[in-house]
Amino acid sequence: MLLTRLTFFLNAIIAATSLGVLGLVFNRQDELVLSSSMPTSAEPNWSWESCGSSHDLIKIESITIADELAPGEKATITLKFTAQKTVESGAYAYVTVKAGQVQIMKKEFDICEQAQNHGVAIKCPIAPGAHTIRHTVELPKEVPPVPFDVNIAGYSVDIEDLTCLSLKADFRKHK
């Protein structure tokens, strides 16, 4: 049950991040924005970085989570990206998830199918240009107090590099 709920949460992130759609800069002070070009003074319990190249078909501009990630709470994830060319159905992502030092999942996901199955507001094919997606998920109460590392490598149906992300979330209590 816990693994199923964690997998649902991860699938929602996967659908959003692999499509390259995390991040809209908000004006409200209670929301945190992380961008590869924008420093932040807050100490969030999550972070991301691109592990892709300048040739990726999806350029992720920013990832926003409205509040700190907390077990049993809702998390609104927003992402902003630019598609360099059309992303067709059949695009996929290899996802590896570690809880602490233990690998708990290594799986291939159909990106468009995951987006559709989890109600993410984007449909394939994704047209070239700028896109923004906002999606809310509820984190399971049973999320263990450990750091998670999620690595996502996305590819087009033609096996072109789509995007690559390294996401970290730390559910340990910090003083």
Automatic annotation (TrEMBL):
<keyword id="KW-1133">Transmembrane helix</keyword>
<comment type="similarity">
    <text>Belongs to the NPC2 family.</text>
</comment>
<comment type="subunit">
    <text>Monomer.</text>
</comment>
<keyword id="KW-0445">Lipid transport</keyword>
<dbReference type="GO" id="GO:0032934">
    <property type="term" value="F:sterol binding"/>
</dbReference>
<comment type="function">
    <text>Catalyzes the intermembrane transfer of phosphatidylglycerol and phosphatidylinositol.</text>
</comment>
<dbReference type="InterPro" id="IPR039670">
    <property type="entry name" value="NPC2-like"/>
</dbReference>
<keyword id="KW-0472">Membrane</keyword>
<dbReference type="InterPro" id="IPR014756">
    <property type="entry name" value="Ig_E-set"/>
</dbReference>
<feature type="transmembrane region" description="Helical">
    <location>
        <begin position="6"/>
        <end position="26"/>
    </location>
</feature>
<feature type="domain" description="MD-2-related lipid-recognition">
    <location>
        <begin position="48"/>
        <end position="169"/>
    </location>
</feature>
<dbReference type="GO" id="GO:0015918">
    <property type="term" value="P:sterol transport"/>
</dbReference>
<dbReference type="InterPro" id="IPR003172">
    <property type="entry name" value="ML_dom"/>
</dbReference>
<protein>
    <recommendedName>
        <fullName>Phosphatidylglycerol/phosphatidylinositol transfer protein</fullName>
    </recommendedName>
</protein>
<keyword id="KW-0812">Transmembrane</keyword>
<keyword id="KW-0732">Signal</keyword>
<keyword id="KW-0813">Transport</keyword>
<dbReference type="Pfam" id="PF02221">
    <property type="entry name" value="E1_DerP2_DerF2"/>
</dbReference>
